[in-house]
Amino acid sequence: MGDSTTSATTSSATPPAVASIDSEQLHQTLNAQSGAEKRALSYSQTIHKLFCQTLQSKLPGDRILADYFRAHKKHGSKDRRVIRETLFGLFRWHGWLKLIPLKDDSQQAITEQWFAQLALTATLEAHSWQDIVSAWRGFAGLGEPAINAQADSGSGSNSGSDSGALEAKQALLTAAFPGQAFPLTALAPDWFWAHFDQDSDKQKRLVESLSTRPPIWGRLQGISLAKAQAKLIEQGIAASGSDYFDDAINLGHKSINLNGVALYSQGKLEIQDLGSQVIGNICAPRADESWWDACSGAGGKSLQLRSLMLQQDKGAKGSLVASDIRRKPLEELSKRAKRAGFGQINTQPWQSDALPVTAGHFDGVLVDAPCSCTGTWRRNPDMRWLDDASAITDKANLQLDILCRACEAVRPGGVLVYATCSISPVENQQVVEAFLAKRPDFSLQTLTHPFTGEPTQMLTVLPYQADSDGMFVAKMVRQGE
């Protein structure tokens, strides 16, 4: 979801227990008899394969999982849920699980180590498939009291940041493995802490958020919250609003088949994290302005900017150009814009180092730069173990280069917005400071943090502030008219 900068591929990240499970030997050794035991054994082998494949390939776990399910149609919805939630639970708690000591060096102990991780993950996550968990616990040789102590310790990945719940889980592991420490900061790799605030309370609150999964946040387009909630209830989806943005909607934690949601197919609902929505609201485009989204990807923020224009004036004449070096995301943006009925959005790919748009033309330019994505670790717990420190340190030059190029498209008096989904100053504050040193014709604008109300010129959204991903945004004005 780690003690060295190469933890994703070292034995510390992949314990010996995880590296050597032989299918035939397991059947002979464990002698699974009941249906639950056989299913538990089958699940364990599938999850082991996916876990190791993710660590070894360094590809995102959701991509590995999607490819697996595409190739194995036999799995029903329950199978998919057990496999998916256990896999990502393993990564969420990997920093602690890899500290579990082996009892001895025998093959049986190695087998026990893996099943212990599965059983403990299910307990920490409060998973409901207790027959499977019981089988894993039996295969691991874990006693009932040690890992059945979940009681009131919280609901794992489905709850918000909760210190008491996390400390109860920490106590659970300490009781199961006396003498072994399970520090909170172990839930993120050591290299990360060199790039985060050293305040112990902030570190603790961040870890608390990393041990939970954020809800599915959406953004409404052309429909009120009350009407959207009523339509979603008709489809059995309970949703709530946000205290911060009128068009934000919280869809809870349950997996949703978006293609079956009418609001989504009608273009009235887009999935966008609340932290990401901060960026568009900081841009605050006027209804008649021209904007360029210089690193648009599939255009979530381009759509948000257009939606904000239309909220001010249903006939908004403002326009947007979206650019990216990849054509497929731009094609996806075009489909999304058509679904939403949004005109005034054009795409223009980057084809060289030269600007793909007219210099000095735009009222606003958004640079949502490529980054380490450390702010999304709650949603993608595998990524914290797949990357090393270079994920943060290697991108600053690229980020500064993109910012210096894109700023030429801002007209005098226009605004330049720099954003990332990183929470590291190396990719955020330091890049902005380096840019301003090169371009004194730009100056920072004071912002109000939407979740804390504090004034700032460098706005960092931390995951625990509003149950969201982490983000960074700074807004600059180009001098002159």
TrEMBL record:
One term of GO molecular function: rRNA (cytosine-C5-)-methyltransferase activity
Chain positions recorded as S-adenosyl-L-methionine binding sites: D324, D368
Keywords: Methyltransferase, RNA-binding, S-adenosyl-L-methionine, Transferase
UniProt KW S-adenosyl-L-methionine keyword: yes
GO CC, alphabetical: cytosol
Pfam assignment, any one: Methyltr_RsmB-F
Region feature (Disordered): 1-20
Active site (record annotation): C421
Domain SAM-dependent MTase RsmB/NOP-type residue range list: 206-479
Gene Ontology biological-process annotations: rRNA base methylation
UniProt-listed PANTHER family: NOL1_NOP2_SUN FAMILY PROTEIN _ ANTITERMINATION NUSB DOMAIN-CONTAINING PROTEIN, NOP2 YEAST -RELATED NOL1/NOP2/FMU SUN DOMAIN-CONTAINING
Family: Belongs to the class I-like SAM-binding methyltransferase superfamily. RsmB/NOP family.
Name assigned to this protein: RsmB/NOP family class I SAM-dependent RNA methyltransferase
Lineage: Bacteria, Pseudomonadati, Pseudomonadota, Gammaproteobacteria, Alteromonadales
